[in-house]
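Researcher: Checking consistency across runs. Here is TPR repeat-containing protein again:
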Amino acid sequence: MRTLFNHQRSAMNVKTTFRSFQYAVLLLSLGLVFLFSSNSSQAADTSSADFEQANKCYEQGKYGEAVSHYDKLLQRGEASEAIYFNLGNAYFKLNQFGHAIASYRQAEQLAPRDPELRANLQFARAQARGGSPQSGERRHLFLNYLTLNEWTWLTVIALWFLFLLLAWMQWRPDIRPKLRNPALVSGLAFVLLGICLAVAFNEDYLTKTAIVITGEADVHNGPLDESQAAYKVRDGAELIVLDQKDGWYQVSDQSQRVGWLRQDQVLIFSPRAQQKSKVV
């Protein structure tokens, strides 16, 4: 009897101890959740306060201070379309068109169909070029109206729709004449969407752009300061990067002129990478 009682008592102790352990784990978990939520809330409040401070500086005409505040937010990893857009506006007010264009293009990756953003980007480019049109600008606007994922989905949908129509035509030969035109349209749509996808992929992942950030820069024939200047580019010029060597970039402009620029004269913009970096 005592043995049985002792055994039951021992079981009760184990059960009580386990239940106490459960309560302790529960209390610890609730404490951690409260701590992390409190920290997240404080971080969100801090970010919101910094963003409002940056906007306030902009409204007061302190564009340099606004740039500093926006940059601090980005350095903390708090990238957003609104921050890049406002940063571009601040740079534009400082007549730093290269920085403005780079910021607008970063914002464009996050909100490709924002009409106000697209208008500001076009205006900044026009100012940088002195009002002259940019080659391929309409193509760029068209391709960037959709993200790369959206172009991919449209292409895949067109392909599947074409396959379904072809399979249906094989399964029901009696309605084949009625499905011939829809199949041709689907095939044409697939080809066109595939071309758009290929061009967008090339621009998004295979093309690196150098955006000039100095008032005026000499593009040299070789990667040396002593090399003869081939032509000049203005602040905000967007050039295709062909090669890199010893602190220089080999670039090509819209007229297919090739030359070399020092790395400290440009920002390197890699689409979809969501980053712009000044190489020094």
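Researcher: Does this match what you'd expect to see?
Model: One thing to look at in this run: Residues 148-206 form one domain.
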